[in-house]
C-alpha cells in the first residue's frame, strides 16, 4: 500500500498519506492548476458570452417595444381592417364560415367552460361550426362531454362531438383529423381553443376581419389572461414570465417581422395557409410552433392583438407545471434541430428575417436563455467559489443579470415586489428547462413525451365557497388529507442541487471575499422547498 501511495503522489506530498481525506485534498491540489482551473475558466468565458447574447437580445427587445408603443401604428391601422357589419338584407351571407376546434383529454373540471364560451360567440349560427375533439380515455368523462355537446346542440348550436380510435399524434393528430371531416370543408378559417380557454363573445368579430381583408395574413393571435394568477405564488411567478412573452416578445415579432410562435390556442388560422404549409405535424411536442415556422417560410404573415384577450388557467401544482415546462422547452429545441437547415435554404424569406428566426427566436430565447441561467448561476458561479483562482467579473455576475431581470419585469408591473422571488424560482426551473432543452437538441428518450397539463377549473373556488357556507352555518368542515406517495412529492434533483449550493455557500462564508453566500443560501432555500414539493402553496399578497 505504501508503494502504491508513493507512485500516486509526489514525494513532497508523502506526509499526508496516512489520512485518506488529506490524500484526497492533495490530489485535488495536484490536478487543480493544470486541469480544473483552465476548464472552469473556459466555462466562465462561455457563460459570460451567453449572458451578453441574452443581454443584447433583451435590450433590443426593450428598445423595439418602446418604439412600437410610441410610434408604431396599431394593427387596425397597419393592415386593412373593417368590422363585419350585420346586414338585414344580406343576412349572414357577408360572414365567412368559421370552424371552432376544442381539443380535449380527460378535462373533467373545465370542459363546460370552453364549450359554453365557444357556443356563446357572437357569430351567425349558420356560419359557425363547433368541433369538440375528445381524446379522453375515461369513459365517464367522455360521456359527460358528449352530453354537454348534445345539450348545446338542442339549443340550435351547430356543435359536433368527435372522437378517435387512438391518440396518435396527440393534439396535432386530433386537429389534423378534425380538418378532414366533410362537414368542415366549406369553412375558411379555424379558431382553436384549449379546454380551459374562454373567449369573449366578440372574439371572432374582432379577429376575423384581419383575415378577410388581408389575404396574406395566415394567423391572428390573441393574448392570454389568467383567471387564477392570484391563487398562489407558483401561479404568480408563471404570470410574470408569460406576461413578458406576450407584452414584449409576441408584440415585437408581430410589429417587425410579422412572425411569432403560435401559442397553440386563442388564435385563428386561415385553413388555406395550414394546408399550404403541410398541415399539422406531430414530429415534436410543439406542433403549434412547427406550423407557424413552416407557414412563415412560405411567406405568410401573422398578426398579434395584445388588446384581444382570452381568459385561461395556469397550472396550480408544481408537478403539472414541470411537465408543461418540459414540453415547452424540449419541443422548441427539437424543432430547431429539425428545421434550422430548412430555414437557411429557404428562398422566399428575406435574409434578416432568417437571422431573426434562427438567432433571436430559436437560439437565444429557446436555448441560450435556459442554459445560461442554469449553468452560470447554479453551476459555474458556485464552483468559482471553490476555485478562487478563477475570477468572475462583477459586471457578469451582478450588473448584467440585474439589467436582464429589470427588462423582464416590464410585463407585470403589479408584481414588481415579487421580482426577487421570481429570480430564485426561475433559477430553479432553469434546471428542468436546460435538461429538457438538451433532450430536445439530442433527441433523447423523452423528446416526444406529451403529458396533458392538469386543469382544475373552478373546483378550488367551488370548494372554498362550499366551506365558507358551512362555516357560516356553523357546520363542521371536513378536513381533506392529501394522500400522495413520498416519491411523487420529493424531487431528488432539486435536493441534490440544494446540498451543493449550501456547501458552496458555507465555504464562501468562511473563506470567500465577494459575499456570494447570501445569494447561495437563498437559492439553496429555493431548491429545498421545491425539492420537498412545497412550492405553490404560498399565497402572495398583492
UniProtKB/TrEMBL annotation:
Gene3D superfamilies cross-referenced by the UniProt entry: Spore Coat Polysaccharide Biosynthesis Protein SpsA, Chain A
Glycosyltransferase 2-like domain sequence ranges: 189-396
The keyword Transferase is assigned to this record: yes
Catalysed reaction equations from the record: GDP-mannose + (glucomannan)n = GDP + (glucomannan)n+1
GO MF term set: glucomannan 4-beta-mannosyltransferase activity; mannan synthase activity
InterPro entries: Glyco_trans_2-like, Nucleotide-diphossugar_trans
Highest rank taxon of the organism: Eukaryota
GO cellular component: Golgi membrane
GO biological process: cell wall organization
Localization terms from the record: Golgi apparatus membrane
Membrane-spanning residues: 42-68, 355-384, 390-410, 490-510, 516-539
Record Pfam families: Glyco_trans_2_3 (PF13632)
Family from the record: Belongs to the glycosyltransferase 2 family. Plant cellulose synthase-like A subfamily.
Name of the protein: glucomannan 4-beta-mannosyltransferase
Native organism: Cucurbita argyrosperma subsp. sororia
Amino acid at each position: 500500500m505504501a508503494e502504491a501511495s508513493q507512485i500516486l503522489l509526489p514525494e513532497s506530498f508523502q506526509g499526508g498519506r496516512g489520512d485518506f481525506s488529506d490524500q484526497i485534498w492533495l490530489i485535488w491540489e495536484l490536478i487543480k492548476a493544470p486541469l480544473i482551473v483552465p476548464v472552469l475558466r473556459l466555462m466562465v468565458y462561455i457563460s459570460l458570452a451567453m449572458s451578453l447574447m441574452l443581454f443584447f437580445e433583451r435590450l433590443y427587445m426593450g428598445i423595439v417595444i418602446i418604439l412600437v408603443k410610441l410610434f408604431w401604428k396599431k394593427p387596425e391601422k397597419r393592415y386593412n381592417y373593417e368590422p363585419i357589419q350585420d346586414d338585414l338584407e344580406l343576412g349572414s351571407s357577408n360572414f365567412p364560415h368559421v370552424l371552432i376546434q376544442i381539443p380535449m383529454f380527460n378535462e373533467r373540471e373545465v370542459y363546460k367552460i370552453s364549450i359554453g364560451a365557444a357556443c356563446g360567440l357572437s357569430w351567425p349560427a349558420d356560419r359557425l361550426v363547433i368541433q369538440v375533439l375528445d381524446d379522453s380515455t375515461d369513459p365517464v368523462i367522455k360521456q359527460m362531454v358528449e352530453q354537454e355537446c348534445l345539450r348545446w346542440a338542442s339549443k340550435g348550436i351547430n356543435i359536433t362531438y368527435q372522437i378517435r380510435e387512438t391518440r396518435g399524434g396527440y393534439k396535432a393528430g386530433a386537429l389534423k383529423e378534425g380538418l378532414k371531416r366533410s362537414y368542415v370543408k366549406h369553412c375558411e378559417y379555424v379558431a382553436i381553443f384549449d379546454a380551459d380557454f374562454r373567449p369573449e363573445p366578440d372574439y371572432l368579430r374582432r379577429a376575423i376581419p384581419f383575415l378577410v381583408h388581408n389575404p396574406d395574413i395566415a394567423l391572428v393571435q390573441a393574448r392570454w389572461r389568467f383567471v387564477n394568477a392570484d391563487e398562489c405564488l407558483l401561479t404568480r411567478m408563471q404570470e410574470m414570465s408569460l406576461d413578458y412573452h406576450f407584452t414584449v416578445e409576441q408584440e415585437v415579432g408581430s410589429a417587425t417581422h410579422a412572425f411569432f410562435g403560435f401559442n397553440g390556442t386563442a388564435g385563428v388560422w386561415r385553413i388555406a395557409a395550414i394546408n399550404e404549409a403541410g398541415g399539422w405535424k406531430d414530429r415534436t411536442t410543439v406542433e403549434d410552433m412547427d406550423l407557424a415556422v413552416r407557414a412563415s417560410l412560405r411567406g405568410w404573415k401573422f398578426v398579434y392583438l395584445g388588446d384581444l384577450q382570452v381568459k385561461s388557467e395556469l397550472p396550480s401544482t408544481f408537478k403539472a407545471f414541470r411537465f408543461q415546462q418540459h414540453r415547452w422547452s424540449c419541443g422548441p429545441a427539437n424543432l430547431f434541430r429539425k428545421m434550422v437547415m430548412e430555414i437557411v435554404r429557404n428562398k422566399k424569406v428575406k435574409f434578416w428575417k432568417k437571422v431573426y428566426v434562427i438567432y433571436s427566436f430559436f437560439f437565444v430565447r429557446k436555448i441560450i436563455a435556459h442554459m445560461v441561467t442554469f449553468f452560470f448561476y447554479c453551476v459555474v458561479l458556485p464552483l468559482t467559489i471553490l476555485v478562487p483562482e478563477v475570477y468572475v467579473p462583477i459586471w457578469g455576475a451582478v450588473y448584467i443579470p440585474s439589467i436582464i431581470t429589470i427588462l423582464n419585469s416590464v410585463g407585470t408591473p403589479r408584481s414588481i415586489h415579487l421580482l426577487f422571488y421570481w429570480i430564485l424560482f426561475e433559477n430553479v426551473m432553469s434546471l428542468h428547462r436546460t435538461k429538457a432543452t438538451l433532450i430536445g437538441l439530442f433527441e433523447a428518450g423523452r423528446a416526444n413525451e406529451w403529458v396533458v397539463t392538469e386543469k382544475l377549473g373552478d373546483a378550488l373556488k367551488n370548494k372554498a365557497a362550499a366551506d365558507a357556507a358551512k362555516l357560516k352555518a356553523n357546520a363542521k368542515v371536513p378536513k381533506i388529507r392529501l394522500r400522495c406517495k413520498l416519491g411523487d412529492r420529493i424531487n431528488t434533483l432539486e435536493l441534490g442541487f440544494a446540498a451543493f449550493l449550501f456547501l458552496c455557500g458555507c465555504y464562501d462564508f468562511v473563506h470567500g471575499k465577494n459575499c456570494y453566500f447570501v445569494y447561495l443560501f437563498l437559492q439553496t432555500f429555493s431548491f429545498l422547498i421545491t425539492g420537498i414539493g412545497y412550492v405553490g402553496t404560498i399565497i402572495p399578497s398583492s
